[in-house]
Amino acid sequence: MDQAIVIGSLSVGLLILAVYIKNRGNISQLRIDPQEAKRRLDKEKGIVLLDVRSQEEYIDSHIPKSISIPLSVLRQEASERLPDKQTTIFAYCRSGNRSRAAVKILLKQGYNNVFDLGGIVRWPFRTVSGNK
């Protein structure tokens, strides 16, 4: 019986590790660099530029035409504010940690075209301030 518990525990552990490695790989493949994001934003219509920082950070400085949904409320507000799960979404924050978490949240909610733009600190193009 003790051997069955050990084997079961190892099996569960390996399964958790496999899921972690698979999901970690997917997130890194979903990164988009600022130059590619800017090129696509200039050429393609309908891309959502999602700022997941706090409202205060957004007002201070953000990428033009981005929308603000702070990471703290993204789980609750995504389906209402981003109803089309096929829409291409570029998520960004200040340094890249919150945008990576946002991509994971959105993928779990069934969004298919989500990319991690990383931090606004790497955005070499124009930014604006204010609510819009």
Automatic annotation (TrEMBL):
Alphabetically ordered keywords of this record: Membrane, Transferase, Transmembrane, Transmembrane helix
Q: Which residues cross the membrane?
A: 6-21
Q: Which InterPro entries match?
A: GlpE_sulfurtransferase, Rhodanese-like_dom, Rhodanese-like_dom_sf
Every Rhodanese domain range? 43-129
Question: PROSITE patterns, alphabetically?
Answer: RHODANESE_3
Instruction: Name the CDD domains for this protein.
Output: RHOD
- Recall the GO molecular function terms of this protein's record: transferase activity
* Name of the protein in its database record: Rhodanese-related sulfurtransferase
Organism annotation: Desulfosporosinus hippei DSM 8344
Lineage, opening ranks: Bacteria, Bacillati, Bacillota, Clostridia, Eubacteriales
